[in-house]
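Progress note, sequence design subtask.
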């Protein structure tokens, strides 16, 4: 019975590696000039201590699209991210889209890469700031090679993928 459970677990983990992955800029019409590539894991960064993503600046209402295909896990509101969408994609990664003006998807929906999921806004702690999309990628599986002793929140760093590297192809993580 125990072997069966382990086999099922390994099958589920492997399935995440079989899903297709895309590397699409999640704001329609945006280019690499619309974000600071050095803002990922910037410290100090307010209540969250480190900036765990990149901010892609665009006009309010600009479409936000799925960076990679996946299953919408959650749409809703929180104080920091404002209107947010969480999408589970390949390699057991959760794509986090925050500060949206509004959402255009729902939990349980499958999104194709490039499909609209919302619009750029300034909700949550971005209220009163220039409109932008906060884009982060969290790995549900640890990426131990990203641990750096002495780095702020070093343990958490093992669970985040640099969105700039993901989108530009620079040093793409293998996990």
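Output:
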């Amino acid at each position: 019975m125990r072997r069966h459970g382990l086999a099922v677990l390994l099958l589920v983990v492997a399935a995440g590696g079989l899903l297709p992955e895309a590397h699409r800029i999640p704001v329609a019409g945006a280019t690499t000039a619309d974000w600071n590539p050095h803002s990922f894991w910037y410290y100090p960064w307010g209540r969250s201590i480190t900036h765990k993503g990149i901010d892609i600046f665009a006009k309010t209402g600009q479409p936000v699209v799925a960076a990679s295909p996946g299953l919408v896990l959650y749409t809703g509101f929180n104080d920091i991210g404002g209107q947010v969408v969480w999408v589970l994609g390949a390699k057991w990664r959760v794509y986090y889209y925050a500060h949206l003006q509004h959402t255009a998807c729902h939990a349980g929906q499958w999104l194709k890469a490039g499909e609209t999921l919302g619009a750029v806004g300034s909700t949550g702690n971005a209220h009163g700031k220039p409109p932008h999309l906060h884009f982060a990628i969290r790995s549900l599986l640890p990426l131990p090679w990203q641990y750096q002793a002495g780095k702020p929140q070093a343990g958490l760093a093992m669970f985040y993928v640099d969105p700039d590297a993901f989108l530009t192809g620079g040093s793409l993580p293998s996990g």
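Residues 20-168 form a domain with the Glucose Permease (Domain IIA) fold (CATH 2.70.70.10). Work on this subtask will continue into the next period as scheduled.
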